Amino acid sequence: MTSGAGDALAAFDRHRRLLFGVAYQMLGSVADAEDTVQDAWLRWSAADRGDVADERAYLIRVVSRLALDRLRSARVQRETYVGPWLPEPLLTDPGPGPEESAELGEQVSLAVLVVLETLSPVERAVFVLREVFGMPWSEVAGALNRSEAAVRQLGHRAREHVQARRPRFDTDRRATREVTERFLAAAVSGDLESLLAALSPGVVLVSDGGGKVKAARRPIVGADKVARFLAAIGPQGAALGLRVGMAEVNGAPAIVAWSDEGPYMALQLVLVDGLVEQVLYMGNPDKLAGIAEATG
User: Fold this and answer.
1) String of b and e for 70-95 (b: at least 16 CB within 10 Å)?
2) Concatenated DSSP letters for 23-69?
3) What is the side-by-side order of every strand in the sheet holding 199-208?
4) What single DSSP character describes residue 166?
5) For the whole prediction, is pTM greater than 0.70?
6) CA gap 175, 214 in Å, rounded
7) Which residue(s) pair with 263 in the sheet?
8) Which residue from 200, 280, 188, 283 is spatially nearest to 232, judged by alpha carbons?
9) pLDDT in tens, 34-63
């Protein structure tokens, strides 16, 4: 590797985690975010870097535009997706420092990413850059090649939209982990009564199988229906030889199962006042790469 190439790689690596965070928040896909960062590296390695005054701003601009193009394409593909679409779960550090948390984005929770799916691609880009990563309006405008007045208007609309739909959820990690562990024990054993005790009356279970594995084609609503669904599928893990345990996924405790071939499923609970309000179940094998480290 030449000195110039080495310098380019070193500069890019300083911002790689941040660039992945921006792309992941915009796309909700680990695989697409990794591809976007790789495409950004190709652009960076071929660029005339002598004209780049601010490498961080330059790279964020490149990643944002690449992610925006990819998101517009993905929206068309998702119109034919089989069953509910959920963001790809991402294994995260249970105790990241402030710098690492900021680089990934503090609003990385699956519940929030689900809400971001309801924004238009450009609204989502503005929201991620401004609200998640705290970029100044001028930088957001530069990244998206729009006027500052335009991105302010888009940002205001996106923020109102997200605030109106964003679920209120418990943020106490210890309490969430305790409830999730009890929930796991009840599901694995098929304990219907314990599951019912953990669920709110209006609980919603969303399962994403992508047509690749068996999953509910529509959200399941109501404590009784959700509990019966989980009590039926929970004990099947032992018969399939799955290893089931806890992991930190998207900044919160989650249940992960894996087989000898790799990740099998990820399940995360959204709690409100100590009761389960949402169950987010990812079973699509194509969307489990982000938790592959949990198999190690």
Assistant:
1) bbeebeeeeeeeebbbbbbbbbbeee
2) HHHHH--HHHHHHHHHHHHHHHHHS-GGG-S-HHHHHHHHHHHHHHH
3) 220-221, 199-208, 275-282, 262-272, 252-259, 243-249
4) P
5) yes
6) 31
7) 258
8) 188
9) 999 999 999 998 888 777 788 999 999 999
